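pinned: reference chain
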Amino acid sequence: MSDPNDPFAAQPYVPPSERGSDADTQDAAPEAPDAAPPAQESVADQQEPPTETASPEPEPQSEPEPEPTPEPEPTDSATEDTVQVEQPQSHGIQRPNTSSTHEMPAVADRPQLDGADDDDREPTVMLPVDSHDDDGTTPPPRGRRRLVGTLALVVLAAGAGVGGAAAYDAIRSDDGGSVVSSLDAGSDGGSAPASDVEKVAQQVLPSVVQINVTGGGEGGRGTGTVISSDGEILTNNHVIESAADDGTISVAFNDGTNAKAEILGRDPATDLAVIKAEGKSGLSPATFGDSTELSVGQGVVVIGSSFGLEGTVTSGIISALNRPFPPPGSSSSTETAFPAIQTDAAINPGNSGGPLVDLRGRVVGINAAIISDAVSPGSNGVGFAIPIDIAKVVSPALAKGNDFEHARIGVTVGGAVASDNITGVGAEIKEVTKGSAGDEAGLEVGDIITSVNDVQISSSTALVASIRGYEPGETITVTYTRDGDEKTAKVKLESDGGKLGS
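pinned: its structure tokens
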């Protein structure tokens, strides 16, 4: 059946042997309107040599009024749908399959373009089996292939959501449906409900500052937490210690103001310090929580000047509690030791001294350190914070300019390992100070302390960090082994007089 919309239906195919000169062809009258047009030949039909039986030459007759022939829609050369076939000079030679100007090789035979940008090449389309040209037929012309590529793209985009599919259906609908566009839609007029992290950030950000330090040929940035309305700020000792000898400290507040600051007191043993900003009042002090109530897995938020970007907020969970800091295998000295809160919330250089906050907006720790390396200098999901219960005991003395007195047992210890020489099993006593708290409790050289108040001790650092969590005068229960037998002792902790010791 012929296509009534075919613009060439009024010009039937004439074999080459029956054609005259170009002038004759141009002057030939069209067939009568009532003559049935022959079926349109496919390219596959053109592959076979034309039959030897030729139709007779049309006899001259009066030229009837020709039916209006619809003009083909204009196309550019890049997307022309008309298949142009070169006519052979010899009627008896079979035409090859390369006659189509848009013919493309089979998918498996197409060259791959390594490194080519998607914008520089045609979309790759897996053609259906019946469009393959291995059987001598011609694949769809370029314009149709591009449509297939567009369809593949729309299908992929629509797979991302119902809205994409609905928009495509509206555009392609045959019933005159209107086009749907996200660009024409207005705002829904509502904001997303505030998350717990957002609420915490809004509550705590006014109490967080950036600290800029220069001194001793060094400079750096850290974070601090406002602890009084007149400008007292809690931070890490390692953030401000370079300014301890004729250095300078400036503080950038959340409201955009800046002020100079001075050191009130610092404690290397717990890595805490208190500074005071000049000429400030009406500040918003942070609210302290209770680090003894924390649980592994609960959500926490970190706020600070990550890589110098002040007011950066990250979130995560508490990964472990009472983690000895410095951790085993690190290069840090036991001079600074504390029972750390471990978190996977992103802590980066510049976050030191900033708050670790629970989801009620209470500060539960002071961020102090991360495990990192030269390849990945930022957060690797292992960060450490000083429990706020230690800071609540240490910071009042530092704010008054006093040295903080740490609790101690009065013994010197070293690490104890199992028979594999790897596994830590406790802290072995190497020396006992005569008249010390440990001496009075009956501890001896060679004893291996394995726990304090039922908290496991696996190394000498763990013991030092654990004792730093208590105050002088408190009584603890120490579990230890002696000659393979497990024993316990009550130890009333003494003061180090502001000097370091265990």
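why pinned: The CA atoms of residues 80 and 334 lie 79 Å apart. The chain has nine helices and 20 strands.
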